[in-house]
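batch job 7 of whatever, protein = PAS domain-containing protein
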Amino acid sequence: MVNDSNDVRPVYIIDALDRIVFVNAAWCRFVAPVRGGAPDLPNVIGRPIWDRIPDGVVRQLWELLYSRVRGSGGSVFVPMRADRADERRLIDIEMSPLSDGSIRHVCEPVWSETRAAVALLDPSYPRDRRSLRSCMWCRRIQVRLGAWEEIEDAQRLLAITADSSLPRLEPGACSSCKQSLLKTFPARVA
């Protein structure tokens, strides 16, 4: 058995009922800058992963991935952007089925690069009622129906300034990422 507690990579495990049953210290450090601080573990451990993943196509795609991982008997790798306000990050999430129906997630950093801080990704900025759809996998922003742009370009195109408040980022799936996932895992997704 692997000792995930000492792994330097972010690791989390969901059980057969899709509840988060384990996160390591590296995972806590990994999500802290994105979420605006260290996660409140009592609100994470024992809670369904679906508390962190919204309904709709994003949830359907994750359900499809989990079904595929559990059915395949082998590891599945999913590339994903995990950007911070001042850093672009690409990770591979290795999802491995465990014998009891649980799934172990290991977040392997692929590359990162610094950039000028992007206000839309800074959790310290207050948010208003406006919202923008952000692809959960590539982090691009939907600027109009069918058009997705890198966050810096979207902020410029949509003339979003870091004034008193900013729009919320709503998780979505751009057509490129959705199609890529569906080609990898054939199934029906609305």
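notes: Confidence is low (pLDDT under 50) at residues 186-190.
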